[in-house]
Structures are given as structure tokens and as C-alpha cells.
Amino acid sequence: MRNFEAEIRREKPALPPIKIAEDESRRLGSLANSTMDLFPRVAQFLARELERATVTEENDLRGVVRMGSEVTYRDDETGASRKIALVYPHEADIELSRISILTPVGAALIGLSVGQSIEFETPDKRTRGLTVLAVSE
């Protein structure tokens, strides 16, 4: 007899639905493809996120994490909150809390809305969860 409770615990939670603008999707797709050799894990993660995203109109993205958004999120393990700006790699500056889309946190945040949570894998292969608390342009 199978242990269904143990099976349920091993299953990954369903990924939340995400939305992205067409032009942003195209640009981020090109970025993921062009960095596949340099950053294979995060580029593949970003590409998967873009593939599952619903492409939508600009005016349907209020409260959605986009490039250039200021995002406050909670680390679901520690409970700590952090406010960052999600940026392209050449604009990243950790001291100014400007986080690149080509980081696991950046790729996880894109397309999420306030209240949504996501789990993702860190470079050291741990599972990390975060929840979006606020989004502003």
C-alpha cells in the first residue's frame, strides 16, 4: 500500500499564474537565450517562467512585478521582508537593492502579483520561498 501522505509532502506546490507584457517577454526571452552558456540554471529557470506566463496588455499589469518595479517581498523561511528594484543585469547593484532578473530571486519575482508566493531553487540547490507584499512602478 502506498503512503499517500508522504507522496503529497514530496510534491512541489503548484506554480502561481503570472502575467507579462509582450515586449518584456520578448526582451527577457532573448536575454535568457543569450546567457544560457554563462548562467545555465537561472537562464533556464527564467525561460521556463516566460513560457508559462500569460502575455497580456500593458494596462492589465497593475500590481504585477515587471522590469523596473520596486517590489517588497517576504522570505517565507525567515519571515524577513526586503524591498528591491528588479532590473536588467547591467543595472544591477546589490548595495542599492537593484536585483538582476538573472538571479534566482529576480527570475522568481517576474510576473507575480501582490499576495502570490513561489518556491524556487537556489544556486546551492536549496528550496526557497517568497511572497510578494507590494509592487510599485
From TrEMBL:
Q: Does the keyword Protein biosynthesis apply?
A: no
Top-rank taxon, per record: Bacteria
Concerning PANTHER family, the annotation shows: REGULATOR OF NUCLEOSIDE DIPHOSPHATE KINASE (PTHR30437:SF5), TRANSCRIPTION ELONGATION FACTOR GREA (PTHR30437)
List the source organism. Bradyrhizobium diversitatis
**What sections of the protein cross the membrane?**
none
Pfam families found in the cross-reference section? GreA_GreB, Rnk_N
Keyword list, A-Z: Kinase, Transferase
Report what the protein is called: Nucleoside diphosphate kinase regulator
Q: What molecular function terms (GO) are annotated for this protein?
A: kinase activity
Span of domain Regulator of nucleoside diphosphate kinase N-terminal: 16-55
| Keyword Kinase carried by entry | yes
Task: Give residue ranges for domain Transcription elongation factor GreA/GreB C-terminal.
Answer: 63-136
